[in-house]
Amino acid sequence: MSKTIQDDSLVDFSNYSTVFCDSTKALEWAYQNGLSKSAIIKSSAPALLFSKNRNIQNIEKRWTVKETKEFQKTIQKLTEDIFDIVLGIPGIEREFALAISQFVYKFQRVIFKAACLDANDFTEPRLFIYVYGKTGPSGNMMNSLWDQLLFGNPSFTKVDYKLENDKWSTLTTYGVSYWRRFKVAGYETIVYRLAMKLMNSMPSYIFKKEILIPNENELNIEIASSLALHGVRISKIKPEPLSNTENIFLSENIIDFYKMLSPIISKRVRDWVEPSAVDITMSLFKGYLEKEINQFKVFVNSWEKAIGKKSGINKAVLVNSPGNLKGFALACACRKNSIPLISSQHGVTVEISKAHSMLHVGFDNGVADAMFSYNQKVVDVEQGTYFDNAKHYIVGMPMRLIRMKYAKSVDKSVPPIVYISTNLYHMGFSISSKTDYHNAMDEQSCITEVLSKLPHKVRYKTYPEDNRRYADPDPVLNNVKLADNIELFFNKIDMRYLIDGHSVLVTSCATSTLGWVVMSEKPVIFIDWKDKSPLSDDAYASILEGVFVFDDNDLNFHQKLRDFLSQPIDEIEILWQKKKSAREEMIKNYFSMYKGGAGKRAAQIILREYLN
């Protein structure tokens, strides 16, 4: 069996000619401790792959765009089949079937990584340098699971490396003035915060209705504030901490579940991985499945304690993004206690994205009893999914987004153009059809071929990454720093607080970022990466009319984008105004059906239909 060594003095680095490593500092440390400079370094880290070391190889090189799309296109059907199989078992809850189906989706990451290995990796000496350091709320995500996949190789060694002088931060409002925060958040947030604090200090028996809130989003805050003004108690809830000893909830039929699912999963594994990797990948599937089932059962029990019984007071749960294990368990607990689970849209993405079909099992509408949405298009998409189980209501965008149109002022001390990067790495399988390395190359080209050659000053706003993917800083930032006309803004402050300082907004990918910038009414230049979170065909047709869209697969893409952005700012603004009529129609269809009042509209529905 493989071995893990925490004391590096016990490792003879010179014995290894092939090493798995995703950190430049860890690699330098290994060289200093005897690793041969001729050793092959297998990595997925852009920082290492951008180096000039010819011995550093992209471990994900087999995943071409074509190959990745083949892998992705069958996932939607796979999750639907798994859902049907599990739900077909007598006595199984729908939420449990969703949890297992989504688990199978998440397991595609393991298959993706296993497919990067070759036969020699399972028999010949291999060294894996595992990195420890400061991370975000999800814990250490800076390492691939090579130690688990190569566990059976007796010549495999894992050695630990702790990053020195390590720093990491998460999203903050530090440095953002209270006035600016208030302008974005509005009075609804103040009402919400005060109501929750005051109401939780009052005895519960004076209330007849209560909204339980496990987490927040912009629309939920607005809804809750309106409900509070109608005398509904607003209460924060959270599940009891998971206990490693609470295995009494573990399904006694885990072997039966595995036998039922393994033929489907085994076939998919065999289709994609090296024969030497099949058995260990299936072993990991079985172990992860057992853990998932246990956690689901424990979460259900924990949530039941948190929500309490529906006695003496009408309750409903208002949740954000319940399409995950914790959310499925919450839904199960709510259903058992006849408490409605209500969710609201948390950003413009589903209605504009072409790549989200494989994520249907994680959509909110698969688990919520009711969904509050911004527009008709998102309802159309969600109602067309296999897992749809919600009643849908269109209420429009929350005022936090609507207020972006009041961000008219421009700060002359900052660059007029801001590039809002959406370049987020995933260390493997994601909705992008390109690897992290190739996404980094695209981002680098955009910086060197477009942004750095503009006659205007440009601010490069990094993505405010909460969960650290790689130990090293994004290597494309080196190109930003080399450009005389680009200012690097890497503080982890949400873009919503910075929009009012700029005249022209440039961004990419079908993400919620587009919703914030479009609602500002300032000129928006959108880059549609065809292999990275592209727009859906119908959304593309509408958005093309309403904003300035540039396709990365167009001939002379960089030159066209550069020429457009090189125009005087006032010329870009004149062209923007010419699109106003088409943009208003685009906003109504793909962003917000209404121009305000979403919270009040949704609150009235809850009072009438769920807390009556």
Descriptive account of the structure:
This protein is an alpha/beta fold. The protein is 41% helix and 13% strand. The protein has 21 helices and 18 strands. Strand 11 (370-373), helix 12 (376-383) and strand 12 (391-394) form a beta-alpha-beta unit. The longest helix has 33 residues, at 275-307. The mean pLDDT is 94.
Structural features:
alpha/beta, 41% helix, 612 residues, 21 helices, Rossmann fold, six-stranded parallel β-sheet
In short:
The chain is α/β, with parallel strands linked by helices and 612 residues long. It has helices spanning 24-32, 46-49, 65-73, 75-87, 94-114, 146-149, 178-199, 218-229, 254-272, 275-307, 325-336, 376-383, 399-402, 436-449, 477-482, 513-518, 537-546, 557-565, 569-578, 580-590, 598-609, and strands at residues 3-5, 18-20, 40-43, 56-58, 126-132, 156-162, 209-213, 233-236, 314-319, 341-344, 370-373, 391-394, 417-420, 458-461, 486-489, 504-508, 524-528, 548-551. The strands form three sheets. It has a six-stranded parallel sheet with strand order 1-6-5-2-3-4. Strands 8-7-9-10-11-12 form a six-stranded parallel sheet, with helices on both faces.
CATH architecture of the largest domain: 3-Layer(aba) Sandwich
Low-confidence stretches: none
Write the CATH homologous superfamily of the largest domain: Glycogen Phosphorylase B
Average pLDDT score = 94
Strand content: 5-15%
Return the structural class: alpha/beta
| CATH-derived topology of the largest domain | Rossmann fold
Termini distance?
Answer: 62 Å
What is the CATH domain class of the largest domain? Alpha Beta
Summarize the biggest pleated sheet: 6 strands, parallel
Number of extended strands:
18
